[in-house]
Every structure is written in C-alpha cells, then in structure tokens.
Amino acid sequence: MSRQRVGSGARKAWSHRTEEAITIETFQESTSAPGGNAPRRWSVEDVAFDVTTFLGITIVRGRFRDVGGYCEVGPGGTKLALTVDATSIDTGDPALDAQARSIDGFDFAQYPQVRFSSTSVSDAGHGRLHVQGRLEAAGKVLPVVFEARVKQADGGLELDGSWKVDERWLGSNGRFLPHATAHVAVHLGDAGR
Length: 193
Hints:
The chain is built from three helices and eleven strands, in the order βαβββββαββββαβ. By secondary structure, the protein is mainly beta.
C-alpha cells in the first residue's frame, strides 16, 4: 500500500467544494479500467476529519499528514483500505494535537497506525455507498458500518462518511468524545489505469 505524506501546502480540511454527489453508475464508470475487466485503483491522497457532539458542536477538526490506502473497483466489487499514522494529526493547534495524542486508552507509541479495511461495499442509492468493514486502532478491532457519499472533487474522487463513536471502545470513558460522531473525508487520486 502506498503511503502519502501531505505537506503544509496541501489541501486544507473541509475546503468548500461545490461538487455534487455522483451516481453509483457514474462512480463505477469513472473508476472502470479500459476494457472493463481489470480493476481500477485510486490512491488515498488526503484524509480530513471532524468530530461533533450529539448537539452538533464541532469539538475538533483537522487532517492526518501521513496517510495511505486505496479504493479499487473491478469485476470482484469495490474494496477500500485506509491507513493513517495517528501521530500525524494536524488540527492547526499544536496543544490540541498533543492532547489528541494522549487520549485515555490509546498508546500511540505502541499503536501509531489506525487502519480501516472494507469487508463489503454496496450501492445505497442516491450517490451513496453502504460500507462495512473493520477499524483497527490501539490494538483493538471494531466492526464499522456507515454510508459514504461519493463526489468528484479536485480531479479525483472524494468519499465522505460518518459514524457514531463508541467512546467505551476507545477507553476514554466519554471524557474526550461524549456521544460523538466522526466525519471523515477521503480524497482519492488516480493511481493509474
């Protein structure tokens, strides 16, 4: 899996893009390799995130500077894989970055990488994918199910997805992420045909 280090001049988290969601047919066509038989692969270029409380208040927003992964579409279906170095968090506030690296229940020195791999990706209608997979962090594995909106953005594709964070799984006892929702935007660039 290729890894990308995003520099300070890279795309800012949550830039206001005007692209609309695309249909699954358009997604499949735009990601099909010429000839239709070989899989088409897109590489992860940027991962932005925000975390909101149950009241909709954003408590942290940023991106990860060290990311890797891919989206592959082919005759065997769609596969997603994502790896981020959690220590590369960049919220624009060094004190907040340090606080995020010291969340109870996470040992970033021992487990610096967070990984997601899909186990099932299907059409959810209206430009959305239904994604099931495994999230690995801090030596733990959590099944995750979410819908992701697919958009064309900045010459590539963007997948936007949200899910409720189970703070008990994180080991934070609700102190850092009380009833939170994590929203993640993954920008994908063409990795070749």
